[in-house]
Recover the amino acids of this structure.
């Protein structure tokens, strides 16, 4: 297999995870799509899936990668939802913890502690999504066991 073909095969199997969490970092919804889909386009997919399950949600926080008119138009379809893009301050140098963004990053770190979620082992998007939800259930069970 030539290097060009190998990279095409590898990129065809790469996935991106788009997740929505609550303020505690618990998984509310997730969508998995091929890695060649832009973040703001993938966000519209997960928002559409979560809207039917949680119609009372009204406000979302997002990373600066999700800024753009396409996401605003996608949210406008669902009614009175608003999105707040958390941006890094221009006058700050070095590493800075951004408000609200760390909640999602922490959830992804918790989920990636699962062996099956650490790499893209899955052959299908449905299987990858199922393992993501199983990892989330495992986190919930561990939290409930401590109570």
């Amino acid at each position: 297999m030539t290097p060009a073909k190998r990279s095409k095969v590898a990129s065809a199997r790469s996935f991106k995870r788009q997740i929505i969490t609550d303020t505690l970092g618990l998984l509310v919804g997730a969508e998995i799509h091929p890695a060649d889909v832009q973040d703001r386009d993938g966000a519209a997919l997960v928002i559409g899936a979560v809207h039917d399950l949680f119609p009372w949600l009204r406000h979302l926080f997002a990373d600066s990668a999700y800024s753009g008119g396409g996401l605003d138009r996608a949210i406008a379809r669902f009614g009175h939802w608003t999105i707040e893009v958390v941006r890094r301050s221009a006058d700050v140098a070095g590493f800075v913890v951004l408000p609200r963004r760390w909640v999602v990053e922490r959830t992804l770190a918790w989920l990636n502690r699962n062996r099956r979620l650490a790499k893209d082992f899955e052959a299908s998007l449905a299987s990858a999504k199922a393992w993501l939800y199983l990892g989330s259930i495992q986190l919930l069970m561990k939290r409930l066991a401590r109570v």
Notes: Confidence is low (pLDDT under 50) at residues 1-11. The radius of gyration is 17 Å. The longest strand covers residues 27-34.
